[in-house]
Amino acid sequence: MYRVIAFLSLIVILALVNWSIYKKELHIKNGTVVYLKLVPVDPRSLMQGDYMALRFDMARKIYNKLQKKENHYSWRHNADAKDGKVVVGLNEKRIASFVRLEKGEELKENELLLDYRVRNGAVKFATNAFFFEEGLAKKYEKAKYGEFRVNAKGELLLVALVDKNVREL
Fold first, then answer.
1. pLDDT value of position 53
2. pTM of the shown model
3. Which helix (H) or strand (E) holds 25?
4. Is 42 helix (H, G, I), strand (E, B) or coil?
5. Residue 25 CA to chain centroid, in angstroms?
6. Where are the alpha helices (DSSP H) in 71-126?
């Protein structure tokens, strides 16, 4: 009996994992391409191998807007700060620029909704790290933008880092 339960549990777990992978693959395949400007960081980690800790210029703009919205100095430690959506404008290269925080209004042409999270008083997007093969740090030092795929809900998936000419590194 225990073997049957263990086997069925394994099947359910594998099905859920594969369903999650399938959904991510669809997101990458069908998502809208958008580029977010990076704030330079050091691409090294002695404990985890080579990776680039990611920070985005858009996060700083959202943070500043949230501070004004909260209208007090201590927003960074405000437990009421919540996750949300930001409206961005896309230029001809699909590089995003801050337009406004989302309030339920209809989007204009060339605007897109992106999810953001507030964690420990900092605004974050889909990920805060990009891992790469050891020895390639020099290559990724040229990164200026993160390339994301965005689904209809505004969820982002990082797929690549690109240079100032929006070419994949």
1. 81
2. 0.75
3. helix 2-30
4. coil
5. 16
6. none
pLDDT of residue 41: 63
Distance of alpha carbon 85 from alpha carbon 123, whole angstroms? 11
Cα 20 to Cα 30: distance, rounded to the nearest angstrom: 15
Q: How many helices (H) and strands (E) does the chain have?
A: 3, 9
Neighbours of 77 (CB within 10 A): 9
Distance, CA of 41 to CA of 84 (rounded, Å):
25
Q: What span, in angstroms and rounded, lies between the C-alpha atoms of 146 and 124?
A: 13
The predicted-structure confidence for 27-71, as pLDDT tens digits, reads as follows 888 888 999 999 866 556 555 567 788 889 999 899 888 877 654
Show the DSSP H helices in 31-162 as ranges: 57-70, 137-140
With a CB cutoff of 8 Å and minimum separation 6, the contacts of 10 are none
* The pairing of beta strand 122-124 with beta strand 32-37: unpaired
What is the rounded distance in angstroms from the CA atom of residue 68 to the CA atom of residue 62? Answer: 10
Write down the pLDDT at residue 42.
58
- Structure-token pair, residue 55: 């920070």
For 142-151, write each residue's pLDDT tens digit: 889 999 999 9
Q: How far apart are CA 153 and CA 143, in angstroms?
A: 27
**Model confidence over 66-86: pLDDT tens digits?**
877 654 444 444 445 678 999
